[in-house]
Amino acid sequence: MRIVPDITGDHWVLALRTVLAVWLALYVALRLDLAQPAWAILAVMIVTLQPVMFTGGTPPLGIIIHRCIGRLIGTFLGALMGVVLIALFAQQPMLYLLAAGAWLAFCTFCVMLLNDEPASYIMMLSGYTATLVSLTAIGTGVDNVFDLALARTTETALGIGAGFLMHVLIAPRFGSRALPGTLQALISGAADEARVALDRTRSRAVLNERLRNLMGKHQQFEAQHSLARFEFRRFRRLLPALDHFAGDSLALMTGLRELEEAIDRLSRCEGCDDLMAALRAPTLPFLDALEQDGDQLPTLPELPDVAILVTPQAPVTLVRATLVRERLSEVMRLLHHGRALSLAMRHHRHVGLIKLTGPRPRRANHPEYGVARYNAFRVFIAFELLGLFWIHSGWTSGYLSMMLLGVFIVLFAKAPNPAAVVRQFLTGTIWAVIIGCLFSYVVFPSITGFPLLALSLAVPVVIGTLMTPHMRYAAVGLAGAVTLMTLLNLHRTYVFHPTQFINGGLASILGTIVTMVTYSLFRQRTPAERLETLVAAYWRGLERVTRARRLPSRTWLESRLYDRLSRLLALGSGEQMLREAVDLHALAMCLWRLRRLARVSGSHQHEIERWIAGLGRQLLQAGRDEAAWRRLAAESEAQAAALYDLKPLPTALIGEFEMLSHLLRDLPGAAAQAREALSPGEDEQGAMDAR
Description:
Blueprint: H1 9-31, H2 37-49, H3 52-55, H4 61-89, H5 93-113, H6 118-140, H7 145-169, H8 179-199, H9 204-225, H10 228-231, H11 233-236, H12 239-266, H13 272-291, H14 315-346, H15 369-393, H16 398-411, H17 418-443, H18 450-467, H19 474-487, H20 498-521, H21 527-547, H22 554-570, H23 575-598, H24 605-622, H25 626-643, H26 651-677, H27 680-690
């Protein structure tokens, strides 16, 4: 096979870990004479292999812990709901179809709405577990539904425990172990950017390239910081500070860009060399200390007052020097906080360097209600139509196809192209039926005892595990392993029923085909279209910031903007789209500062706020019209020029107007490039990586 040369040592360790977990779960299930030992193996395979589809190797322990907890809670809730469905509608097939389909649609709606929160995984499990329990009870006898629910929960917990134990004992991978070093690399890189900006000017292409590299470090920090709460106890106390800095790091990116522009504007003024020398004197030693990987926190320097260094006859120089000082001060404050957090994560003696009290910042999910409603609708329609076929055909094994439909249609609802994934699952299901037939007819009748049973099962488990890390064969490997364990009779006493096996295999294939047809006929919007809608909604949110009667706090606004960037990453946005998100952050914060400064501008407050509100309305109408953006930038410069006549001179307010004109002039090209550079193929791959 093509994947053989790509199999690494990590993949073999993953296969060993999976096989041992399967053996442990199967042995305990058989010793305790549990109802369905295959369910314990099924839990092992899904907990172990499903994350591998997106990590390409051994998943970090934080993901495993998160999945284990979510699967346990979701299975319990789903089993409970399955009992309720049977208790209410066991004698009313049509009402059962409506109720079970509504529950499955509701869980799918929540899965899509909650984005990547832990509750999303719990709702996914509770959705299809309810159908598994209730449909199994219908197919085998509704009188034992409580025993089935208890068995499902017990054996799932057994499989979860076995899988988790092997991940802990055999070469565990800690995704957040490198978090302190990653954070230090981010701080060192940002400090180097600030130092270079103070020393020399750079072209826009060079600046964008260096900021692109810095954004890569930021994304690496994001990926590791999300696992910290599950992997290391000593990081849990720092979670509020980590979450706050995750939002601050985006402000750091925009702060560096604005600092570069502010210095460039100041360089055109007379006497700029003396001003920059005065600002460099306390700043460069601080930045050099941050670039060093030491265990000491450098003192945050006090920048000189530029007002005493500029003559009253040079108001433009004073305004631009004040803007440089403010941006430099903000960048250094963020760098100082990041270095303190990095030191606190490295050793307990540094924990006192940061503030540990206070709640974690509230996050916004930015739900896509339209996408969630559409997915819930297609799940409900598919479940009802297949259910009607099952009831009216009288097919005794039809409940198995309903079970597979319920699992697959919820499991891959978030995939960029779920129809393609389910096609791979169909291939794996067909192979599983063929291999299962071989095991049932040839292997199982020829063996006795647990050792031979374990060795025979190890072969398909190893093959499925080695296929899963490879994107092209991931769904085939996982589907084959899952379906095979569902079809095989793994009780203590082996009894083979050919008719039952054939019906079960055909039902599994039919359920997978119906899922694939559903995704093919009811196509949801592409990631590119969803990104367009999401970005348009963000611009409308920016317009609301310009006219809101009550000015939001800076912490709330930065948290919202940070969450927007996270949502763009989850949908697989490209590099240019990320740049637009950073530009959006800079523009929003600039408008927020303008509104805050306008409130202390005296008689000019209402005039400035009216202009800002009008600007917000025009932002939505500008679109890709660069002439409109240049006109808005010119209006901003005119506002700044008019303020030079005021006494005393509002230096901070004028500086923000000039920075706003730069952002307005620079933004349209980035927005246009983002939309042109976005290709569906890249989006799908990016979304798979993000998940």
